[in-house]
Amino acid sequence: MTQSVLLPYIYGLDLSKNVFETTDQFPNALQDMCNLRWLELNRTNVARLPEYVSKLKSLEKLNLSHNNLPDVPICLNDLSSLRSLSLRDNHVSASQISARLFDIPDLSVLDLSRNNLQTFPKDIENAKGLTVLNLSSNQYDKQKTLSFLLSKS
Fold first, then answer.
1. pLDDT by residue (tens digit) across 100-128?
2. Distance between alpha carbon 101 and the CA centroid of its chain, in Å?
3. Rounded to the nearest 5 degrees, what angle is found at the Cα of 50, between the Cα atoms of 32 and 41?
4. pTM (2 decimals)?
5. Which of 6, 28, 68, 135 has a CA that sits 20 to 30 A from residue 89's CA?
6. CA 72, chain centre distance (Å)
7. Which run of H or E residues covers position 111?
8. Which residues of the chain fall short of a pLDDT of 70?
9. What is the C-alpha separation between 41 and 95, in angstroms, rounded?
């Protein structure tokens, strides 16, 4: 079998600890993995994802931990099957999170720990399916955090 025949049958891919500092360094074959359910890209030095990641419509779990992402990539907003997203230990701030991320209906696990969050992400209350939210080890203003928690009860 040739490589292109196998790619649609791959359900999980771990590319952790490979270096993808630019989008050109990502394997182009990734865009042909139409049935990919989980993708591990932790510790890859990624600062930006290629746009074709938005075409991975079957993706349910994405781990982007321990990278150099300054924001939540916009291409993730189109991953309607996404259930679990880890952005632990990046450089994300609340203003760099698209409100559309919280409209993904099946998103139930979101890890934004160890980032540059100073306030709660805007529109997080729209994440109706969210059951696990990790916001630990950020730089929250205690007064703003307390007022957010009290105003939502």
1. 999 999 999 999 999 999 888 888 889 99
2. 9
3. 80
4. 0.88
5. 28
6. 6
7. strand 109-111
8. 1-5, 142-153
9. 23
